[in-house]
Amino acid sequence: MIHLLFTLIIAEMVVILLLLFRTPLRKVVIMGMDRMKRGRGPVIVTTVAGTLFVLLLSSISNILNFTQREDESGSVNPTDQILFVRSLLDASLMGFILFLGLMMDRLHYYIRELRLLRKTMEATKKQNRSFDDAKNGNDGRKAVEEEIAALKSKIKTLESQCAAKTDEVKAEQSKAEALKKQSEGLLLEYDRVLEDNQNLRSQLEELNSDGKKNM
């Protein structure tokens, strides 16, 4: 019994040391304790702890009985002394086992809570980063929208200038067409005048020839 109790104490001390320091075995121990707290694990642990607590109470009652006997008789035989020491040792070991078990449970609980807290903080940091990115994105979007508005105003100005230039070109084209029509009319008038001139020359030549014949 004593060897088993010492073995349990050493095992619990090793587990506590592994939980206290960051080592590759720490994750294995945490995973093992997580599995122990699932399914039938809590029932088994509670049963073992309850059994140890009952044995602890029994050892304490034996110690109290030995103390009463010693007070009543004034002297204790060697056998009672050995049983008293054995009960005291058993009670001490079982109490230490229960205490270390409670320490293991609390360490495991606080480590899990610390991990959840770190995950929550990381998630909060990511949200803050995404919020900052979104804010920066909104600022960049505003700048782009301002540039787009400026470009739109420039486009409108260029469109108005282009419309004015188009109107000027149309006016010049209409003037050119008018000048073309006017030149065509002048050419027609020139041809008519030239034809009349030729007719007049021919008539003068006929008159001159008739005059010469009469002479």
UniProtKB/TrEMBL annotation:
**Coiled coil regions, renumbered to chain:** 141-210
Which Gene Ontology terms describe the biological processes this protein takes part in?
Answer: endoplasmic reticulum to Golgi vesicle-mediated transport; intracellular protein transport; protein localization to endoplasmic reticulum exit site
Gene3D superfamilies found in the cross-reference section: 1.20.5.110
State the InterPro entries in the record. Answer: BAP29/BAP31
> For this UniProt entry, what's an example GO CC term?
endoplasmic reticulum membrane
Q: Which UniProt keywords apply?
A: Apoptosis, Coiled coil, Endoplasmic reticulum, ER-Golgi transport, Membrane, Protein transport, Transmembrane, Transmembrane helix, Transport
Does tRNA processing show up as a keyword for this record? no
Q: Which residues cross the membrane?
A: 6-22, 43-64, 84-104
Does the entry feature the keyword Protein transport, yes or no?
yes
- Membrane topology value: Multi-pass membrane protein
- Where in the cell? Endoplasmic reticulum membrane
Q: In which family does this protein belong, per the annotation? A: Belongs to the BCAP29/BCAP31 family.
What is the purpose of this protein?
A: May play a role in anterograde transport of membrane proteins from the endoplasmic reticulum to the Golgi.
Q: What is this protein called?
A: Endoplasmic reticulum transmembrane protein
Task: Give the source species.
Answer: Saponaria officinalis
